[in-house]
Design a protein that fits this description.
Bound molecules: FE2/S2 (inorganic) cluster
Strand order of the largest sheet: 1-2-3
Order of helices and strands: HEEEHHHH
Structural class: alpha+beta
Helix content: 40-55%
CATH class: Alpha Beta
Shape: globular
Length: about 130
Amino acid sequence: MALYSEKVMDHFRNPRNVGVIENADGVGEVGNPVCGDIMKIYLKINDEQVIEDVKFETFGCGSAIASSSMATELIKGKPVSEALQLTNKAVTEALDGLPAHKLHCSVLAEEAIQSAVKDYYDKSGVAVAE
Ligand code: FES
């Protein structure tokens, strides 16, 4: 069996939602100190608390790029409260799996989105239960 699924390779080669959102409503940046990879997520959120647009910049491995790409696809058009619930497991499943030593790459995507949503909540004065 190939190390990486077709979906991982597709999202690595043609990542969706790459870029920056100027004046984003929420921005989250996280890094993994072990591998040194960094992921940044930008959210545009409308008055109904729905994620209208999402972009990412990832300075990292192929699995991190594929995970960010898939994660942004999973939360686009969804309420922010749902994005906050996105787990790395859901991202990994949507990618048809990642090798065990690459699971931490999907954790970065989960953390970056949570960080961006919390930034949005902070900016808009919404209290969040930890
Ligand atoms: Fe660290 Fe992929 S090797 S995010």
